[in-house]
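User: Teach me something about this protein's shape.
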Amino acid sequence: MNIGLIADDSKKNLMLNFCIAYRGILNKNQLFATGTTGELVEKSANLAVHKFLSGDLGGEQQLCSQIEQNQFDLIIFLKDSTSFGGFASSTSDTICNLCDAYNIPLATNLATAELLIKSLERGDMEWREIYQ
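Assistant: First, the predicted structure itself:
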């Protein structure tokens, strides 16, 4: 399965801890991330990650392009819900809207991310292979 990882700056440590905790599951899948998040996950969790550009340099748009092509099976986007407005907000909305349009499971908080990753481990996400 192809998993996209995105984390706002204030959530990067949370993403790292998540990836370390679920390394055994994540290691069995293809991981994609925006540049800074990908580098942190690769180094800290010792996971192979295909890295796009950093989010503010176009990485989120690259990720959106892959979502539009239905190339992801799961997106974990740990976003900072306390910051509003600006470029980051519009990109965040775009990612969420695209996941809705293409029926790609999306976690925007740790609780949902854990539910989805455990669902992946149980094999509950196999419907994505049929859907594509």
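Now, about its shape. The first helix runs from residue 12 to 21. Residues 11 and 22 are 16 Å apart (CA to CA). If you'd like, I can walk through any region in more detail.
User: That's plenty for now, thanks!
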